[in-house]
Amino acid sequence: MEEIARHKCFDGDLSIRRHTSTATQCPMEFSIFVPPGKGPFPTLIFLSGLTCTWENFTTKAGAYGAAAKAGIIIIAPDTSPRGDGVADDPEGAYDLGLGASFYLNATEPPYAAHYRMEDYIARELPTVAAQYFPVDLNRLALSGHSMGGHGALTLGLKYPDLFKSITAFAPITAPSQVPWGQKAFAAYLGSDQANWQAHDATALMTAAGDRTKAAPILIDQGGGDAFLDQQLKPDLFAAACQKTGQPLTLRLQEGYDHSYYFITSFIADHIDWHRKNLSQF
Question: Which DSSP category does 6 fall into?
Answer without folding.
Answer: E
